[in-house]
């Protein structure tokens, strides 16, 4: 099963359903990667950065590097990709490119074997308080059992304001629904400590990435001052290992579309098991993260990021949908995420930029 073609597509202005009570966002951009084999199978992935540099990197470096490789030997292909890519100055954009190749390879492997990937792996604008409470009630009435709200989003993080917003959500949904907070790495330890201590009475299930840069020792300090579990690792300067050895988190949150794909996610999951920690997922790539969370015994929650999920609905066929707070894992071979017929051609954007990774002599 040799790789015959690798192609990245930047799709633009795809119409999506806006969030409840909102008119925007009603369109989305996406980066789709296709890897086709000599057998005629095609693996797909989506996510990451849509910047032209990433598209050029995949189309004019990764493609030339990986065509002819055995797509079933994922470890070898990813190692070759990493070893021969000297543009790691791209930072998280490089990891995103690596992840997209990895995910498409796993999709191919599942399709070639006729099994779902999860079995291969292991068996928005700020709402007013009133709007937030109304949407929380609406989502709970639809059967959702877990809700998460961003905190620390003010120009200067304001724990007292966030407490009022979380209290309004709790009053709207009652005691049965679990509530969590996402700090988006914006608060100091002092701000996060105050917020956690104020909101403990609201029965918060966890707080995600509360402190700036997810600094391990600062997370450990916060963890010692609150009973609310700490989650991190979706946007990080520090590795999962750094967070674990510093006893900084209760929940690790690898995101496969940003953090190196399923191969890296498996390693993080097994490392978390060794430290007795559970996994969760934050970020808008939930339909791709389902497989990892379902595959591992310490897997947990998948974030249903509304407008990103609407983008998946607009782009792919047969996207899993939540029912009474749960997601059914696709039993289709591979990931079960195949783009709708004709969509790539209709929405593909041609980036009018110089090709940073052009062939020698092409200038």
Can you give a write-up of this model?
The protein has 363 residues and is of the alpha/beta class. The chain has two domains: 3-115 and 340-347, Enolase-like, domain 1 (2-Layer Sandwich); 121-334, TIM Barrel (Alpha-Beta Barrel). The protein is 40% helix and 15% strand. The chain is built from 13 helices and eleven strands. The chain has a six-stranded parallel β-sheet with strand order 4-5-6-7-8-9. The longest helix is centred in the N-terminal third of the chain and has 22 residues, at 92-113. It is globular. The two termini are 34 Å apart. 45% of the residues are buried. Residues 357-363 have low confidence and may be disordered.
Categorize the overall geometry.
globular
- Our Rg estimate from Cα atoms comes to 21 Å
How many structural domains does the protein architecture include?
A: 2
Measured between the Cα atoms of the first and last residue, the distance is: 34 Å
| Number of helical segments with 4 or more residues | 13
Q: Per CATH, what is the topology of the largest domain? A: TIM Barrel
The fraction of residues in strands falls at 15-25%
Strand adjacency order, main sheet: 4-5-6-7-8-9
Oligomer: single chain
Would you state the CATH class of the largest domain? Alpha Beta
Structure class:
alpha/beta
Q: Could you tell me the mean pLDDT?
A: 89
Helix content: 25-40%
Largest sheet: 6 strands, parallel
CATH superfamily of the largest domain: Enolase-like C-terminal domain
Low-confidence stretches: 357-363
Order of helices and strands: EEEHHHHHEHEHEHEHEHEHHEEH
CATH architecture term of the largest domain: Alpha-Beta Barrel
């Amino acid at each position: 099963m040799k790789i015959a073609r690798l192609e990245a597509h930047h799709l633009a202005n795809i119409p999506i359903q806006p969030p409840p009570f909102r008119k925007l966002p009603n369109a989305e951009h996406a980066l789709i990667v296709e890897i086709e084999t000599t057998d005629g199978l095609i693996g797909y992935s989506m996510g990451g950065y849509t910047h032209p540099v990433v598209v050029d990197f995949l189309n004019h470096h990764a493609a030339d590097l990986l065509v002819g490789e055995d797509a079933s030997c994922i470890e070898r292909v990813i190692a070759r990709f990493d070893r021969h890519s000297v543009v790691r100055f791209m930072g998280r954009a490089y990891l995103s490119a690596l992840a997209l190749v990895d995910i498409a390879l796993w999709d191919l492997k599942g399709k070639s074997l006729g099994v779902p990937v999860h079995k291969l792996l292991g068996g928005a604008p700020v709402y007013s308080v009133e709007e937030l409470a109304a949407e929380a009630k609406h989502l709970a009435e639809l059967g959702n059992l877990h809700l998460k709200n961003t905190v620390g989003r003010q120009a200067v993080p304001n724990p007292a304001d966030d407490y009022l917003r979380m209290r309004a959500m709790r009053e709207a949904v009652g005691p049965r629904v679990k509530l969590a907070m996402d700090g988006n790495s914006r608060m100091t330890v002092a701000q996060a400590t105050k917020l956690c201590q104020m909101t403990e009475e609201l029965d918060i299930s966890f707080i995600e990435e509360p402190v700036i840069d997810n600094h391990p020792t600062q997370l450990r300090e916060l963890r010692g001052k609150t009973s609310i579990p700490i989650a991190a690792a979706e946007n990080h300067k520090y590795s999962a290992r750094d967070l674990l050895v510093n006893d900084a988190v209760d929940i690790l949150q690898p995101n496969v579309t940003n953090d190196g794909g399923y191969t890296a996610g498996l390693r993080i999951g097994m490392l978390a098991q060794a430290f007795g920690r559970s996994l969760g997922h934050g970020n808008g790539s939930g339909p791709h993260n389902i497989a990892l969370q379902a595959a591992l015994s310490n897997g947990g929650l998948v974030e249903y990021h509304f407008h990103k999920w609407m983008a998946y609905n607009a782009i792919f066929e047969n996207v899993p949908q939540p029912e009474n707070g749960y997601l059914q894992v696709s039993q289709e071979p591979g990931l079960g995420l195949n783009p709708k017929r004709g969509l790539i051609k209709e929405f593909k954007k041609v980036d009018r930029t110089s090709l940073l990774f052009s062939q020698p002599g092409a200038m």
